[in-house]
């Protein structure tokens, strides 16, 4: 080979290595950028979008109830101009963009909230693990090495990571309840059929229920009131808190870690007489007679040993599979999409149901609803674990084990089959992982359940902390008054940081320690005002003024609350009283003048 040609080849080889090196460096740079993006949104979103609320109404009309809140929707809800993905790329490829937006999404936007994106769901919204082979599994912010739970994993992650204020999901066999528990946020499953499923991809028509996630009970309740279109009514306290003793045993988390938290909170808030205990296994056996017929059909070898809870779990799974294939079987047969083996085994492992079998399953479902209604009536709350364990590790085989599936399904089927409303409430951590408890109310008791969560939440969190850290409950040398002042200072700091719910919790703690200090009530009222809880704010200010008739801030805050409630005459009186005490108070003067003009029009 000639020297010149060798030189050219050597030069080209050198350039090739340079280009290769640049390519590797570029790839590493892109990988880092991708990892950074995943870290920023925790893999929660499939697609970003923006649905803005309408302008605020002019005074004296109250502002939109969800003003300044952002939310995301699971990729099952139609948004005009976007294809709902249903957790599978083939579904997107074979379907057109939505011609209109789902009514439940529209009512939230019209209520003042801003929709910012669509979030990841598991394949066909069928699994409760949250792991997906088609998209990166969203990262659980509360336990990154653990599964986020499904099917609406992305929605729960978006809320837990503080990316949005709340998020929408569909709960069929736990799609909202499970990821809420695993990600350490509140998750509400509404009563089946109470909220329209129009513009939402169906999974199992008789089991599907609209649900939503939030980090605090006030937001959960505000969103619920808009979704459920609830008129104003006084809050009601439960008269019965029923602990399902046998179902609590399904949990591998120490029973006291859940039951004692609920017992202490219920005793404190409602009195010991409100606590009841129930064996659900025996209760359902007596109240759901169609299960006996279902059991006779199932008896075959080891199946003869099936408990009532496992039979109910089987009913749920059979209904889910049957109705899913009714909705989407033709599409699956036509498109022949790649399906995750875990999902495929659930869809295809049992033969088709006969008409008689379907009729019996529906009878079980109807009898379950009646049984829960008879147990709880209008004023009862049923307490069970949300899931049997802390979230399993990513990629582990635990979610495929029969023990895990049986325990999980036995807990989840109570609300799924009966159609009752259920809420997942976080209770801190166990072994560095989130744990939760579930509260269930009868079908149609959604408002009552939302009120109960708001009433119990702060106490549940407090007692959860005491059980995890028992030393924190030991007697301290400082007085109760000093402890109350410390709690108030912490509340003030939380208020400055705009952590309204935390501030309310600290002010409530101060009130418990010293209920004769009007400032604590007035300060809590300020936090309630920020959350739009105007009735609570008005009540706290009234209490503050009974303790201290010269509390100017209490008059101003009560005036603001009454203005938002439309009680303009009383609001004017409050601002006028503030001016009597402090004639140069500009805020009081401006507010009073503004309201007089409105009131006299």
Automatic annotation (TrEMBL):
Pfam family, one: Amidase
TPR repeats by residue range: 552-585
Source organism: Brassica napus (Rape)
Name of the molecule in the record: Amidase domain-containing protein
InterPro entries cross-referenced by the UniProt entry: Amidase_dom, AS_sf, TPR-like_helical_dom_sf, TPR_rpt
Keywords tagged on the record: Membrane, TPR repeat, Transmembrane, Transmembrane helix
Residues annotated as transmembrane: 12-30
Domain of life: Eukaryota
Protein's UniProt keywords contain Membrane: yes
Tagged with keyword Oxidoreductase: no
Domain Amidase: 64-228
